[in-house]
Design goal:
This is Allantoate amidohydrolase. Belongs to the peptidase M20 family. Keywords: Hydrolase. This protein has helices spanning about 1-5, 25-40, 85-100, 125-130, 135-140, 150-155, 180-185, 220-235, 275-295, 315-325, 340-345, 370-390, and strands at about 10, 15, 45, 50-55, 65-70, 110-115, 165-175, 185-195, 195-205, 210, 245-255, 260, 265-275, 300-310, 310-315, 330-335, 350-355. The chain is of the alpha+beta class and about 400 residues long. It folds into two domains: about 1-195 and about 310-390, Aminopeptidase; about 195-310, Alpha-Beta Plaits (2-Layer Sandwich), CATH 3.30.70. The strands form four sheets. Strands 3, 4, 5, 6, 7, 8, 15, 16 and 17 form a nine-stranded mixed beta sheet that branches. A four-stranded antiparallel beta sheet has the order 11-13-9-14, with helices on one face. The two termini are about 25 Å apart.
């Protein structure tokens, strides 16, 4: 299965993946998933947003369903493992359960949620948010990508229904850090997700000539932007290595000319912290420093939240049960967002499994997990699912 997926959507000089939602490469992956599900005699359900669940419903299976899976979309020039590892491992775990002779007494589903990364329409975990009712279709249908296409141009609607009667969700994911490397463990369990958000920073100045305009006569929003980036970095570092994260990874400049002072700079801040209070304080400080700098530069600054997720604590009873089942695997937090966090916030008992990433690098072509560790993840996931569907 991994060999099937490896070439799809690979592009760019760095060898990363471009698998944005509803583009040909992501749709090819979605079709591949349906083929894999049907080859296993699973019953495929797809909602109006494109979220998909492949159900294993043996005769007599009843009660709250068990769901696993992840996503197939990627960030721009992303790695191979973020998302697809969870989907492939879930299908492989179904194979393992059948090899073991396990017949689920509860329905078992393998899910693929769309637009988990928010790389096209800007809202992370968009598919799972719609599927759980965390956001309403009318509030997101107008979201647009960088070329102006709206979500409504791609899909006909969205809303709850696909996850009816789901009683537990377990997502396997490549670790996006080095915690398991330091613990010398191939697989770990997740304890929770840090609160995090995406914020749009709009800086407005005055377009002018780069040669004839004196430095002291300029209203240059690029200068305000540069100082805000440095201020955000400093504020995040003040909390120490395990405290805060602040990243400006995307910027749009108008008119974007080499010999022109820009009139507008629009940039996006990704901020994360160990608590919701700490996140709010971090963002407020960055905003204040941006506004103060703008006043000195003769520009204006405004910060607008676009996607904010609160802290998530995975179900302690479920996580403890699985830790005992799997022989005391390490339980670690993550600062990365996941569909599991959305389902947990919706009240579905949720747990996560992480597979060791030897590079510690993610959202990059250098993201990696060894085949022995991936297979250990499949076995752990199969053990968990066997326990939950019994």
């Amino acid at each position: 299965m991994w060999a099937d997926l490896a070439p799809i959507g690979r592009a760019g000089r760095a060898g990363g993946y471009f698998r944005q939602p509803f583009t040909p490469s992501e749709r090819e992956l979605a079709a591949w998933f349906v083929e894999q599900a049907l080859a296993r005699d699973l019953e495929v359900a797809i909602d109006d947003t494109g979220n998909t669940v492949a159900w294993w419903r043996p005769e007599g299976a009843s009660g709250p369903a068990v769901l696993t899976g992840s996503h197939l979309d990627s960030v721009l020039e992303g790695g191979a493992f973020d998302g697809p590892l969870g989907v492939v491992s879930a299908l492989a775990a179904v194979d393992v359960l059948r090899e073991r002779g396990v017949t689920p007494s509860r329905p078992l589903g393998v899910s693929v949620f769309v637009e988990e990364e928010g790389s096209r329409f800007g809202l992370a975990c968009l598919g799972s948010r719609l599927a759980t009712g965390a956001v309403a279709w009318d509030d997101v249908r107008g979201l647009h990508d960088r070329r102006g296409a709206t979500l409504e141009d791609e899909v006909s609607g969205g809303g709850p229904g696909l996850l009816t009667d789901v009683g537990a969700f377990v997502e396997l994911h490549v670790e996006q850090g080095r915690d398991l490397v330091h613990r010398d463990a191939a697989v770990g369990l997740g304890s929770g997700i840090w609160p995090h958000g995406r914020y749009r920073l709009d800086l407005t100045g005055r377009a002018d000539h780069a040669g004839t305009t004196r430095m002291e006569d300029r209203a240059d929003p690029m200068l305000t932007y540069a100082m805000t980036v440095l201020a955000a970095n400093k504020q995040a570092r003040l909390a120490g290595s395990d405290g805060h994260r602040a990243t400006f990874g995307r910027v749009d400049v108008t008119p974007n000319g080499t010999n022109a002072v820009p009139s507008r700079v629009r940039a996006w801040l990704d901020a994360r912290a160990h608590s919701e209070e700490a996140l709010a304080a971090l963002v407020a400080t960055i905003e204040r420093q941006a506004v103060e700098r703008a006043e000195r530069d003769g520009t204006t600054a405004a910060l607008t939240p676009e996607s904010v997720s609160g802290a998530v604590q995975f179900d302690p009873a479920l996580t403890g049960r699985l830790a005992g089942l799997l022989g005391g695997l390490p339980v670690i937090p993550t600062a990365a967002g996941h569909d599991a966090g959305v389902l947990a916030a919706a009240g579905i008992p949720t747990a996560m499994l992480f597979v060791r990433n030897p590079t510690g690098v993610s959202h990059s072509p250098d993201e990696h997990a060894s085949m022995p560790d991936c297979l250990a993840g499949v076995e752990a996931l199969a053990d968990v699912l066997a326990e939950l569907v019994a």
